[in-house]
Design a protein that fits this description.
By secondary structure, the protein is α/β, with parallel strands linked by helices. Helix content is 31%, strand content 17%. It contains 14 helices and 11 strands. The chain has a 9-stranded mixed sheet with strand order 3-2-4-7-1-8-11-10-9. The protein has a two-stranded antiparallel ribbon with strand order 5-6. Helix 7 packs across helix 11 and helix 10 crosses helix 11. The radius of gyration is 19 Å and the shape is globular.
Length: 394
Amino acid sequence: MPKYFEKSTAITGIGQSEISRGSTKSALELTVDACLEAIADAGLRREDIDGVATWPGADYNLSGFSPVGVPQLQDALRLKLNWYGGGVEGPGQFAALFNAIGAIAAGFARHVLVFRVLNEATARKSAYANALMTANQRDAGPFVWYSPYHVYSAATQQAMYFQRYVYESGIKPEQVAQIAINGRRNASLNPKAVYRTPITIDDYLASPIISTPLRLFDCDVPIDGATAIVLSHVDAARDLPNPVLRIEAVGSSMRYRNSWTQVDALGIQAQPEVASMMWSRTDLKPADVDFAELYDGFSFHSINWLENFGFCKRYEAGEFIEGGSRIALEGELPINTNGGALSAGRMHAYGQVHEACTQLWGRAGARQVRNEPRVAALSTAGGPLAGCFLLVRD
């Protein structure tokens, strides 16, 4: 086995359902669509899948945040599993992916189906999607710190972190705008993106303030849709039809206070040590990365990751993205090439994993990154939670 266990695993297939702002299909139907597509893309049959993982597991409520868990998907596809997992705790939204990597490296499974499904667009018709708490709910845990200050949603919560970053870095709104503008430009070339009309700097600055300093275009978009990924042992991957996309290095550490309300560094959150762990497990450097799919639940997260990955120095992301040319498809570091969560829709980074594979396999059409990219950096984030990895075409 390689020194670092993740190097023995590879992504072999991807699938994605329709993505919409309100589907006529159930969440389970969307999940099945994505999973069957991923299995077929990997050149496998359902009988070959011996592991399943998801994040965060079914929540069994009306929020649409996670309406399908492993048991429902396993039963729908009649899968016979040696290993499965699904739970909230872990290195951000990549917990399912990293758990699957561990299961394969440990020999529990050979081909693990990882999925993420959301039904939030439909849920918004009857419930408040992305709420941290609901009416008539007794607050508990970290929420007791939020509710006295009317922090009822992720936007108002994250705005506090972002405001600290703005204060420390001096970043300007015109610079922040480039994350949203770039995402929308890329989304205009993505047939599955929910918002495809390009926006200008004037559009961004005229958009409503949701919670200072977050504007409307800084916030990701709730959708109905599912993404699925097949992760295989690298030995098996070499016998399958797609070029091998190997997991080169992961970052999953927790060296901070694991607390949403007592996070050590409000302005940079939990990402620096996570990125440091990833770089310590590879000979690759930031300059070797051809493109990056950076978490953008809010534009602030992508800005953080540019610095924490080492693509630019601390508090210099504003200068790095100013004008948008460096991060554009034709730039030195294309980011969020499918439009990201801001324009393609909120898939909690799994949509961007799908996109990274699409790019590395040369399937992206009009939005294809030039010069046959071989190395992609991916991330997820939020408060004390963070995860990242490098994906390399062998």
